[in-house]
Amino acid sequence: MDKNAFSADGVFLVGRVKWHTDFAGKIESGLFKMMAIGLGKFAGAQRYHTYAYRLGLEHVIRTIGRQVLKSGKILGGLAILEDANHKTAQLTAVPVADMERKEEELLALVKSWMGRIPMPLNILILDEIGKTFSGAGMDTKVVNRGVNGEYNPWDTAPKIDRIFIRGLNDHSYGNAVGLGMADVIHDRLLEVIDWNPTQINSLTASTPAAIRTPIHFSTDRQCLDKIWPTVGCLDQKDVTIGWFANSLEIGTMRLSENLRAQITANPNLEIVGEAEEMDFNGDGNLVGLLEGAAVAH
User: Among 222, 62, 41, 210, which Cα is nearest to 138's?
Assistant: First the structure.
């Protein structure tokens, strides 16, 4: 436990309760994880992820949390729950005596609110990844990838055949953890990676596969031309595509015209504007982001 926290008269936990990118359980990210990975800081995070490699993250988070509670240092917690648009939706004060049971209850609730891609896709395009959007660079349970490269491990998300990442968000400060979950990336992403924090993050979490370098090309057109023949479609017009800003902001999306029937059949989706061509500039890169495009939200 952090020396300053342990030396204090008491510690009050404040944190989001949400799903974890690496595993599924009744307790994932939240106050219990804060007592292990959070209060443990770098040394704790490294040690606990090492244990978790053999024992499982949920087991490690629960048992360490219980041990920290026995110290008598924890006064209670404030659980923050976010809605599908990542706005604060609920604040819940959690007493020490009921923390483990209450966190299970809150996680089940917040999982029912989470945003999801509305249908299977052959190609998922993300403009950016980064720590701004997810601890794993992109939310694994949105894009349906595992941090070790597993394809479609989550039964709560639609099947995604291929992922194309176009760039890295500036506020990730060069940390490109998560690029290894993609199938193809633009060269512009590789050019801005700071490998020091990227490697520290990945190795501390015991997920070296999360920073493997995928195949990469110098233009968006090349990336798409090279990857679409690998999705099992003989004709390019049959390839289904979803284009998102990132894995966090999925309320607005571009979807290919061949998905129109599925879009109109879904009461949660609304088509805004007319269909548009996928426009490339003279350099072979996509023109126009989600703003002003034909989108569904």
Answer: 210
